[in-house]
């Protein structure tokens, strides 16, 4: 043992570092299943789509349906609500992006873009949006707040009749889920 | 616990065990003979009180688990069953729910004690930092416990708090879905919170062990903030401080039990007796009182990411306190100017708590903003500056001298 040559030392160093590296990489790889098990599982991912017929909705009436465990607001807007939403200049908006999953990610937040489905079809009467405040996830109240549209009671975010954020801490407009019209009034969400 | 002085125990069984595993020597050296400054006041009893509350949480928690079902369809009903059917179930639940609140009360007082008497300064920086980790772990534990009964406030607390992470740029949404195990707070969320709520208190117990270890290396700070110079300055921990601590613990438990028996839901919110409903957010959601100051800071900032950063920063900044306060003098007894700012700081924390309970609008929003600014200014501006500018009062030469001056 006493006659260790330089060569022996470097070989030993190599084994030492190689073993350590394999151990470290192996531990890191082994950790992944324990982290990934927390991600949405197969049953959650196999998300059913939700079908809804808006024909029975009267003007000024809204309903909330569930999709992926989230509330979706579907509203038959009044003429005044549509007018209020269309006449707002884009420059006044806090978030100028449509946030419509059916459109390119940079589509501007015009009222027209807020109601389009996956095929670009739209009926301005019907507004379909995920009913979750983009601040910290509360469900905003309908027909409330300064615009008599949506108001989040949790920390005071105010949305207009197009579901666009106008004041308060929420950073984004309410999200529009992926959906498409299968008839003039019937939609499939998801 | 650096060296185990071996004692000669008279009991032969004790001696036999101790020579193989020196637990008895350790207990005697660290919990009985341990030299403790003779001038500790009642603010020093809150460490022992907090430890007692942790034990109460562990015991009541473990038995609650025997009756609780962590499932979205059953959790709420199983808690109601605990309240109505399980023998003494009501007592166990109220002990646990109020126990959490009184645990925080004790720990907050314990922290302010440290702030006032400069217990975070050299050589106790690590001790202080472990304490901050304990505070954060406690907060996570209490938050996840609060979700378990699956009432309206439980559910919406889970939604709002997990959504804090969505403020993180780019990966925020991914992290939140990972936390939820889905696209919303749902059964997977409840089950993992249950698992972690069971685990974390034991992690806390281990942290408390490290905390006490780090305490027993330099020994206790004291109200005069001066080092122990001779044996004359100290008393053995037992019986002097075991009895003093025990007395304080009993008085504290009396107040705690008064709440448990006479007003168990005084600090709660009635809406949590309504089962969780993902479609309806209660009109006014507020956390438990012990999170209100942080909640006020979150809402004081009109920007999502900004609010989240400020809220977490209010805790993280405590890690840096030992280096932000530049004064060598520990106790504020000898720092008359800092003392004024300290009390302003304490009032600020209470004001933040009050503001956090109000809807975030009008005057309260303004009050919360001013208080948030003062909270940070205290650490980042006032303490660093006063450490240089203030002229401390003359200090007694020793603890014994300080004690004698008073009598
Ligand atoms: C650091 C210590 C702990 C804290 C701060 C804490 C806090 C809480 C809180 C605030 C609740 C909600 C109470 C309510 O509103 O009903 C709760 C519930 C619960 N905790 Fe803990 N807990 C702790 C330790 C434990 C431990 C060690 C266990 C089990 C081993 C446990 C098991 C439970 C169970 C089963 C519930 C649901 C039943 C109920 O709501 O009363 N806890 N906890
Ligand atoms: S969650 Fe809607 S304003 Fe905060």
List strands and helices in order, with pairings.
The complex is a heterodimer of chains A (190) and B (407).
Chain A (H helix, E strand, L loop, with lengths): L5 H31 L5 H4 L4 E4 L7 E7 L2 E7 L2 H8 L24 H4 L11 E5 L10 E4 L4 E3 L6 E2 L5 E3 L11 E3 L4 E4 L1
Antiparallel strand pairs in A: 1-10, 2-3, 3-4, 5-6, 6-7, 7-8, 9-10
Chain B lengths: L11 H9 L2 H10 L2 E3 L8 H20 L9 H10 L4 H29 L7 H23 L4 H12 L8 H9 L6 H30 L17 E3 H26 L29 H9 L3 H21 L11 H22 L4 H28 L9 H8 L1
Antiparallel strand pairs in B: 1-2
The complex binds protoporphyrin IX containing FE and FE2/S2 (inorganic) cluster (FES).
Give me some keywords for this one.
heterodimer, A: 190 residues, alpha+beta, Rieske Iron-sulfur Protein, 2 domains, three-stranded antiparallel β-sheet, 4 helices, elongated, B: 407 residues, mainly alpha, Cytochrome Bc1 Complex, Chain C, Helix Hairpins, two-stranded antiparallel sheet, 65% helix, binds protoporphyrin IX containing FE, binds FE2/S2 (inorganic) cluster
């Amino acid at each position: 043992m006493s006659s260790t040559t330089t060569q022996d030392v470097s070989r030993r160093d190599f084994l030492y570092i190689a073993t350590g590296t394999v151990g470290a990489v192996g531990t890191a790889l082994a950790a992944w299943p324990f982290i990934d098990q927390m991600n949405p599982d197969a049953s959650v991912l196999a998300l059913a789509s939700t079908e809804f017929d808006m024909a029975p909705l009267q003007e000024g009436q809204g309903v909330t349906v569930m999709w992926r465990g989230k509330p979706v607001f579907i509203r038959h807007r009044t003429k005044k609500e549509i007018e209020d939403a269309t006449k707002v200049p884009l420059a006044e908006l806090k978030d100028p992006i449509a946030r419509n999953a059916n459109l390119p990610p940079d589509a501007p937040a015009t009222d027209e873009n807020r109601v389009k489905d996956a095929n670009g079809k739209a009926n301005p009467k019907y507004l379909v949006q995920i009913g979750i405040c983009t601040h910290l996830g509360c469900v905003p109240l309908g027909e409330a707040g300064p615009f008599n549209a949506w108001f989040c009671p949790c920390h005071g975010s105010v949305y207009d009749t197009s579901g666009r954020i106008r004041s308060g801490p929420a950073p984004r407009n309410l999200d529009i889920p992926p959906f498409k019209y299968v008839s003039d009034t019937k939609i499939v969400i998801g | 616990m650096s060296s185990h002085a071996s004692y000669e125990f008279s009991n032969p069984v004790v001696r036999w065990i101790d020579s193989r595993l020196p637990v008895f020597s350790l207990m005697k050296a660290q919990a009985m003979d341990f030299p403790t400054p003779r001038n500790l006041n009642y603010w020093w009893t809150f460490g022992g009180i907090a430890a007692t509350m942790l034990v109460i949480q562990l015991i009541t928690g473990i038995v609650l688990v025997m009756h609780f079902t962590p499932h979205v369809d059953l959790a709420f009903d199983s808690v109601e069953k605990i309240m109505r059917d399980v023998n003494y179930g009501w007592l166990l639940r109220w002990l646990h729910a109020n126990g959490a609140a009184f645990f925080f009360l004790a720990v907050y007082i314990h922290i302010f004690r440290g702030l006032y008497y400069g217990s975070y300064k050299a050589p106790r920086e690590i001790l202080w930092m472990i304490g901050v980790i304990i505070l954060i772990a406690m907060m996570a534990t209490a938050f996840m416990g609060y979700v378990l009964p699956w009432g309206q406030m439980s559910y919406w607390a889970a939604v709002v708090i997990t959504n804090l992470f969505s403020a993180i740029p780019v990966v925020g949404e991914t992290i939140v879905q990972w936390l939820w195990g889905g696209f919303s707070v749902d059964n997977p969320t409840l089950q993992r919170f249950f698992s972690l709520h069971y685990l974390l208190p034991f992690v806390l117990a281990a942290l408390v062990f490290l905390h006490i270890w780090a305490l027993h290396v330099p020994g206790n700070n004291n109200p005069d903030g001066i080092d122990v110079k001779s044996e004359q300055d100290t008393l053995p921990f037992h019986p002097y401080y075991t009895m003093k601590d025990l007395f304080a613990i009993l008085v504290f438990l009396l107040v705690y039990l008064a709440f448990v028996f006479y007003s168990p839901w005084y600090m709660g919110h009635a809406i949590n007796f309504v089962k969780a409903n993902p479609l309806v957010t209660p009109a006014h959601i507020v956390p438990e009182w012990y999170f209100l100051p942080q909640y006020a800071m979150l809402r004081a900032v009109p920007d999502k990411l900004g609010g989240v950063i400020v809220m977490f920063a209010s805790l993280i900044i405590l890690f840096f306190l030992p280096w932000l306060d530049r004064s060598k003098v520990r106790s504020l007894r000898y720092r008359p100017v800092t003392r004024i700012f300290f009390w302003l700081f304490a009032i600020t924390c209470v004001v933040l708590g009050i503001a956090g309970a109000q809807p975030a609008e009008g005057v309260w929003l303004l009050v919360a903003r001013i208080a948030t600014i003062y909270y940070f200014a205290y650490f980042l501006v006032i303490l660093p500056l006063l450490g240089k500018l203030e002229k401390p009062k003359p200090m007694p030469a020793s603890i014994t001298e300080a004690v004698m001056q008073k009598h």
